[in-house]
Design goal:
This protein is an alpha/beta fold. The protein has 9 helices and 15 strands. The longest helix is centred in the N-terminal third of the chain and has 11 residues. The mean pLDDT is 90.
Length: 315
């Protein structure tokens, strides 16, 4: 059976999905060799020109209600249009579960998922509708922030996405469509200090940066307050994991973030205790990482009380 590639486009209304589809088809010559079907699930400011689509063997059909995005209706569409490739422009207010759990017609295979984000409104959505907007991004292979300018907090946006979707490729585009290659803003702590002080407010940011750029911290010392993960089955192995629980999106998405810590007296460190740890970072192979990553070697360990807010955040 012939495989029909399916490309998903997610994001809130007016985030640029329609524009991206048109650019992909016309400017990147993506549609010239295949019969293309666009399934549009919302009406935004941008519209598809059906006559122009016809010049590249492309057509568009609409699904206006979420309940109509179902296996039977998709099968009817497949039989009517017989596409060789499919672009699905998903409605940004519909549940992502509907998109991800609905069986596709025979031969249809999702090959790439792209999410578009309006950089001008993303911070507002993060503050007021975080769970809803992040749902649009958590399965995307590529997240495109468009309408960026010199004031766009690229680092903050990147961390917000990576907290939910670490493999995602992130692209920043300016209003004129050019790629924004400016460096992300500086970290909120000084990595050139003799001992890097990582506050509760900065822990999640440091963790993400150390995970993605471990060599930056190789040989450096740092200090932070941590919750100890050291169950009995691990305590005799000369290691424990200091870390923090972080809220990535909502209460249901809290996860523990920590790095391996080698310590011969790990059996003396109580599981679920709170400590102030000063440690030196070495980038080395660890089976827990399935490769190289930051491994902590304690310089000092001090018992402390639990912080008032035990969670840390990516904002």
């Amino acid at each position: 059976m012939q495989e029909i590639p399916v490309y998903l486009f997610t994001g809130f209304m007016d985030s640029g999905k329609t524009t991206l589809i048109k650019e992909t088809l016309f400017e990147n010559d993506f549609g010239r060799d295949s019969k293309t079907l666009i399934i549009a699930c919302e009406d935004g400011e941008e519209e598809f020109d059906e006559a122009k689509l016809a010049t590249i063997r492309a057509s568009v059909t609409s699904i206006e209600q979420q309940e109509d995005f179902n296996e039977q209706h998709l099968q009817e569409i497949a039989e009517e249009y017989k596409p060789e490739q499919v672009f699905i422009e998903y409605n940004g207010t519909w549940d992502m579960a509907t998109l991800l759990e609905t069986p596709l017609p025979a031969g249809w295979m999702i090959v790439q998922s792209l999410a578009t984000v309006d950089a001008a409104t993303f911070e507002m959505y993060l503050n007021n509708m975080r769970s809803m907007i992040m749902e649009q991004l958590f399965k995307a292979d590529v997240v495109i922030f468009n309408r960026c300018d010199d004031e766009t907090p690229k680092g903050k946006f990147r961390r917000a996405v990576k907290a939910m979707n670490r493999p995602a490729q992130i692209v920043y585009e300016r209003a004129d469509g050019t790629v924004d290659n400016r460096e992300d803003e500086e970290l909120p702590f000084d990595i050139n200090q003799e001992i890097i002080e990582v506050t509760d407010a900065d822990y999640a940011i440091w963790y993400m940066d150390a995970q993605e750029n471990p060599k930056k911290y190789d040989g450096k010392k740092l200090s932070f307050v941590a919750l100890v993960y050291n169950p009995e089955k691990m305590s005799h192995k000369g290691m424990f994991v200091p870390g923090r629980f972080a809220m990535t999106c909502c209460v249901e998405d809290v996860q523990f973030l920590g790095f391996k810590c080698k310590y011969p007296k790990s059996g003396e460190i109580a599981h679920k205790s709170w400590i102030h740890l000063t440690a030196e970072v070495h980038v080395e192979f660890a089976k827990e990482y399935r490769g190289k990553g930051p491994v902590l070697y304690p310089v000092s360990i001090e018992a402390v009380d639990a912080p008032e807010d035990e969670l840390v955040y990516f904002s």
